[in-house]
Amino acid sequence: MTQLDGPRLLPADGEVRKLVILCHGYGSDGRDLIALGEAWAPLMPHTAFVAPNAPLRCDMAPTGYQWFPLNSLEPAERYIGAEAAAPVLDRFIDQELARYRLREEDVALVGFSQGTMMSLFVGLRRRARLAGILGYSGMLVAADALEEAIAATPPVFLIHGSADELIPSRAASDAAELLATLGVPAQFHICNAVGHGISPEGLELGGDFLRRVLHP
Questions:
Q1: Does residue 216 surpass a pLDDT of 80?
Q2: Residue 2 lies in a domain
Q3: CA 2 → CA 111, 127, 157, 179, distances in Å?
Q4: In whole angstroms, how far apart are CA 92 and each of 74, 129, 161?
Q5: What angle do CA 94, 5, 29 make, to 5 degrees?
Q6: 3 part of a folded domain
Q7: What CATH number is associated with residue 76?
Q8: Residue 71: which of 62, 83, 84, 58 has the closest Cα?
Q9: Based on the structure, what is the number of domains in the chain?
Q10: 18-75: per-residue pLDDT in tens?
Q11: Got the DSSP string for 114-132?
C-alpha cells in the first residue's frame, strides 16, 4: 500500500500533544495546505501539522496529486474513488498516532475540496472518535449510504464560499443537515462572495474551531 508523507510543522519546543492532518485538494500537494498550519500554530501550542501528498499523481496537473481520479462527475465514481483511497489515509492516521503517541481525540482532520471529501469519508468511518473534522469547499461522498457506514460522530465544521464555481455552497448546508440527523455535531458557514478557496474569514473561523476541539 502507498506510503503517504508530506510537509510537517512541529511546535517550537518539539513537544507534540495534538496533531492536525491537512488533506489537500485535487491537483495540489501538501505544500499548499501546510501554510494553514503556519497561520494556526500560534493559536495552538504543542500542536503539530502534517500535510501528506495524496497517493496518486494527477494527470490534469502533472506536478500535483489526487486522492482519486475525477474522470466523471457521477456520484458513483466519487464513491469508488474515495473507497479506494480511504485505507491509505486511514493507515496514515494510525501511523501518525503511533509516531507521536497520541490518542484519536488528540487528532483533527482538515480538508480542502477533494481533501474534504476524504476527511469526511474516513473520519466518520473510523471506530474511534477523532477530535474534529474541518472541511473547506467540499462535499459528502455517498451521503445516501452514510447512515449504515458511520462509526464515529466527531464535531464537524464545513466552510464554503457562496460563489464557489466548482462545488455549490449548498453542499455544505446539505451535508451539515444530514450529519445532524445522524448524531454528528455538525455546523456550516457560508463565506459571502468567496469562490473555490479559503478566505481570511474562513481561515479565522477554522482556527477557532480547531482550537476549541483540540484544546477544550
A1: no
A2: no
A3: 20, 22, 29, 30
A4: 27, 16, 29
A5: 125
A6: no
A7: 3.40.50.1820
A8: 58
A9: 1
A10: 999 999 999 999 999 999 999 999 999 999 999 999 999 998 887 899 999 987 668 8
A11: HHHHHHHHHHTTSSSPPSE
